[in-house]
Amino acid sequence: MDITRMQMVDLIRQNVKGTSAVTVDLDSPMDKKGAMRKGGNQFYGQGIVKRMKLNGMIGYNYGNAINKVAAKEDKAERESKPHPWGDMDDKRLFRVHRNNGNMYLSMKVQNTDIVGFFRPDGTELTPAETEQIKTFIPVKKKSSSQADLDGEVIARDFGIDNMQGLTFKGTYLSLIDGAVAQETTEKDDEGETQPA
User: Fold this and answer.
1) Residue-wise pLDDT tens for the chain (196 aa)?
2) Distances (CA, A) of 35 to 31, 69, 143
3) Most distant CA pair in the chain: distance in Å?
4) Beta-strand runs (E) in 32-120
5) I need a labelling partner for 159 at 20 to 30 A (CA). Which of 4, 38, 51, 99 fits?
6) pTM for the complete prediction?
7) How many angstroms separate the CA atoms of 155 and 76, rounded?
8) How distant is the alpha carbon of residue 26 from its chain centre?
């Protein structure tokens, strides 16, 4: 089903009570700040995206999640620090950037499958190029709230503009640009336009 990103936001906000499992198809721009090192990097500035499929939970409570890991490891309860650039909505589903208002789906990631790295024309990097670009990607560090834990809660915020689709409550939603998804129409036997 085709749906705009804002329709997806409304649909999720209306239908999630507590936590919910989702699968997100994401094209993450490699030119964004912090995605890869610039120095000596022939891939930087070429509009390459890392295409991923991620499974996880939305509507979760980060503080509770890290305290569950701490309790399993017999470590002290901890308080999570305020997010540096955004605030969660009232349902703990979307983070809104304080400066520009951009929206991000907040997810506790349980599995990530990297599909590949792609150029703006849709061609995939060769295996040799893929190995080369990976050398410029910094290793993500644990948050200070989890630094002493063996386990880890992988919390990520995905810009809704980078999301290509998601599976939510058993339905795949293909995300499209635009204010409102256009209904497909077809003509019936009398020439009247009907929803398809």
Assistant:
1) 999 999 999 999 999 999 999 999 999 999 998 999 999 999 999 999 999 999 999 999 999 999 999 999 999 999 888 889 999 999 999 999 999 999 999 999 999 999 999 999 999 999 999 999 999 999 988 888 899 999 999 999 999 999 999 999 999 999 998 654 333 333 334 433 333 3
2) 7, 27, 17
3) 72
4) 49-58, 86-88, 94-97, 103-118
5) 38
6) 0.85
7) 20
8) 6
CA separation, residue 14 to residues 93, 163, 174 (Å): 11, 19, 18
Distances (CA, A) of 109 to 6, 43, 44, 51: 22, 27, 27, 15
Query: What are the phi and psi torsion angles at 164 (to 5°)?
Result: -100, -25
Distance of CA 178 to the CA centre of its chain: 19
51 closest CA partner among 114, 106, 111: 114
47: DSSP letter: -
